[in-house]
Amino acid sequence: MTSLNPEEVPAVHSPARPASSASSHSVDITVSQSTTSDDDMVSVTVTGQENISAHQSPAKSIKHTDSAPPSPIKSIKENGSAPSSPIKIVKRSDSASPSPEHIDVPHIKVELVTPTSSTEVTPERPRLSILSYHVDGDLYIKVRGEEGIALYKVCSPLIAAASPVWRRTVYGGEHPRPDHGKWIIEMIDSDDYVYGLDIIFSIAHYKFHEIPTRPDIDQLYYISKVAEKYQCTHLFIPYMEKWVTGLNWHVVMNGDHNDNDKTLYTTWVLGEGRWFSRVVTKVAHKASVDERGILLDTKGQPWKHQGLPNGIIDLIAKTRLDTLKAFALAVDVPVKKLMDNCREQKTDFCRSKDASGDLKEACQLQQLGSLYSGLTIAGLMPFPDPEEYKDSASNLAKKLLGVKAIRFKLPGVLPHNDTHFDCGIKHKEAVNEIMKKSVQPSGAVIQQLKIRAMKSGAYSDELFKELKGMEERDPSPEPMEDLHDDKTLYKHTDDPASPDYFSGSDESGVPVKLEDLEI
């Protein structure tokens, strides 16, 4: 997060092109608005070789849809598959004198770089846009999204009241309000997702019609990332009941295609205990490790960089390792014992009651041969050491389930009369049971989930019903946090009789005196 020079005009750049494939030319943009409010309809018209027209809707009418919400960034769309043309603001002149019916804002000169190939790329509208959340906005938040740069015009007191992090940012002195020009703060963190910021700013500025009623997993993830960073999940209390219902619907409908990594993070931030306890097992089964032993998510990114606390990451790592060890006990150990039985002429894995000794030995030899061959083809012979295995437990399970154990079968005998139906190490049944086993979160983890659920408004007995027994078996050593002590969440009473109450200054730096309150 950095402060910008008040007079600096942001430049938008797309991926660089070779010099030989691009040419520069200038076009003029005239920006005008139809009323005296700087938040009403703004029209941008470009004249020159390119003709660009864009409109910014009033801040009171920014629309979202639950299924595919539009980005608040106005992107440049092009014909064909060529990359976007860079737009760079190179000059800004002074504004003309406003008239009552038409206000001309500063004339802007824009330099466009476009390809000179036969397929000309024509930008439809500028990439830079300003989204105003309030007519009295005094602070510009500059965000770099995937589609370009956006400027959010917000009320600093509103975002400071909504988030203790924003309060420190606005009033802490690191990003002071300039004496002249615009007050701009640039967001440089990759976790400052445009969609999440837009939803939180909309709530903080009372744009309640902008809030989705049933955001999908990706949308909830972006919202949760921003809310966790700025410690403002309490803003979601009015919406959380519908959001929890929607989360359940999306996870169930997505099935095996659900992004469990994002779901885990979202349920942790919001305190949705039901799906957290279910998804953490799936996440652990799909986690892998790199050559240095660092735990990775399904996209190959280190889990330690995903924003979850170390306790949750340790839980994922432990569950993964425990699952791999269980596979070794279910497959490797029985195969070795089967090999020893064949060597020592024992017949523990042939359970036919009427078979002769030679027939039982033949049954076990068939089992051993098929298992050894199948494991070798799968690259699992010798069986991997759980401590050294790099791939996920889920992929190992798929390989093990693909190994077929062949037992002795009398020709012409119907299955219900086959006395060898129960022979074998039964590795497939064991693997399936291991994969069904759920993680047991500690009491401390469950308590943190409850606290988060109370902050976000997600808490209900139903969501924590599956965790109740786990919490009773392993209670948290720490007492439950009293959220009423949090001044961001609840009202509090000041004591004007305190000797230090009137000794400080307000946020503007003006000393506070008792007589100023006119009590």
Structural overview:
The chain is an alpha+beta fold and 519 residues long. Among the domains are: 2-212, no CATH class; 319-436, no CATH class. 34% of the residues lie in helices and 13% in strands. The chain contains 13 helices and 13 strands. It has helices spanning 156-162, 164-171, 194-204, 217-230, 240-254, 260-270, 273-286, 310-344, 357-377, 393-401, 427-436, 443-456, 468-473; strands spanning 2-3, 22-33, 42-47, 53-56, 87-92, 103-104, 108-115, 129-132, 139-145, 148-154, 184-187, 288-289, 295-296. The longest helix has 35 residues, at 310-344.
A few lines on this structure:
With 519 residues, the protein is α+β, with helices and mostly antiparallel strands. It has 13 helices and 13 strands.
Determine the strand fraction and express it as a percent band: 5-15%
H/E element string? EEEEEEEEEEHHEHHHHHEEHHHHHH
Low-pLDDT runs: 6-123
Q: Could you tell me the radius of gyration in angstroms?
A: 32 Å
Specify the structural class: alpha+beta
The rounded distance between the terminal residues' Cα atoms is: 40 Å
Helix content class: 25-40%
The biggest sheet amounts to: 6 strands, antiparallel
Rounded average pLDDT: 76
How many strands? Answer: 13
Shape: elongated
Query: What is the helix tally?
Result: 13
